[in-house]
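Work through this protein:
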Amino acid sequence: MATINFLYRSTKEEAPLTIRILHRHKNKDYVFSCKTEYEIKKSYWKLHGTKSRNAELTNKQADVNTDLEKIKKFIIKEFKNSKFDSISNNWLKEKITLQKNPIKEEQQSELITDAIQFVVETAPARDNGKKGIGLSTCRVNAYLRLKELFTDFQGEKKYLVKELNQVIFDKFKGWLLNPKNNYSHSYTLKKLTDLKTVCKDARKNGIETSSQLEDIKIKQVKTYQEGMDVIILTPDEIDKIEKTTLLKDAHINARKWLILACFIGQRGGDLIKITKSNFKKTDHKECIELTQQKTGKKVEIPILPKVRNIFENGLPYKVSTQKLNKYFKEIGRIAGIDTPTLGRKQENGRGTEKIRPKYEYISTHTGRRSFASNHYRKLPTPIIMQVTSHAKESTFLEYVQKKDDSHIDAFLDLYKKEAQKETKLKILKNASNQN
């Protein structure tokens, strides 16, 4: 059982008491301490535990004991209800603050970490991007991760929602991108966007926010940093994978998923849910119909020759995306898809950029990006976007890492036509002069 006592640790004549927890856990002694907000005079504290016939001192001791007992009971209760791994000096400091300033049931805490937690706790009742109710597990995990990251970022400083101005956002951004943490630009952008969303949500609940909140700029960053390769499988590489001899049934099955991925253009979670029931045939068309999990959009996908061949010879059995990612890399290695490629890969819990054989980067998402890239310029971009379900052409172009240079072709076509007109006029004039 934890033991709690209070100490006077200051050279000042009046100062806050320090609270200390002593606890033995798994045969190891632990000590946690922090300053309280309960101030007392040094001269009194020397006499606090002594017996006295002085009525004034006795009454003072009784009042102080009552106050300290409230703090002690609160901390013991919180200690019992917390996992031991989460207890630290910072934990104790938060609990002392909470005891002094309890959260009213009808009022949300002003701490930014509590505002994030509030979003998590109310997730089942929140509107989602699919015009439904309830945030997905993925979104909830994203907010939980945001809370972890911001807690690490702020350290002992406990930011209030109203303190999050442009300066703090920029500091958090720099902390995420710092080589020590090494989070990607796209991941950093997502976390900053989520943080701003939390602040706006807190404002709706009556919490004061920074006057700069609406003007805080979260600059769009490129999905891929300069020099990074877009990981796709070219038509030749797909053909090479198809012709490679595979011995394991798991690899043969996974290869079907990989080919489907490259010619269906969907995200991994949607890909592995495809069954015969998704293949639709009417008097006018044949296609694959599905509703995307992320966007909630219903898409119709053309049944291309390689997809039809797999469908007629038997669709692959379902495998988790995690296993498919593993198998895709193994298949790529066997097929010799080993072009030196600069990409980003998780190592020791952090994404690291490095030149590696291409097969090390093959995943379910490689198929989606291959579909978009291999059809780009062969078909009008809006037609491809009907399948991938990108909302904006600019987003699609960034996705395949292409620039919108269509204006160049338009100018060249114009002047090419003008040159052809001039040539025809010269021919007509020459023919007229000869006559």
Observations:
- Residues 232 and 366 are 5 Å apart (CA to CA).
- The two ends are 116 Å apart (CA to CA).
- The longest helix spans residues 406-434.
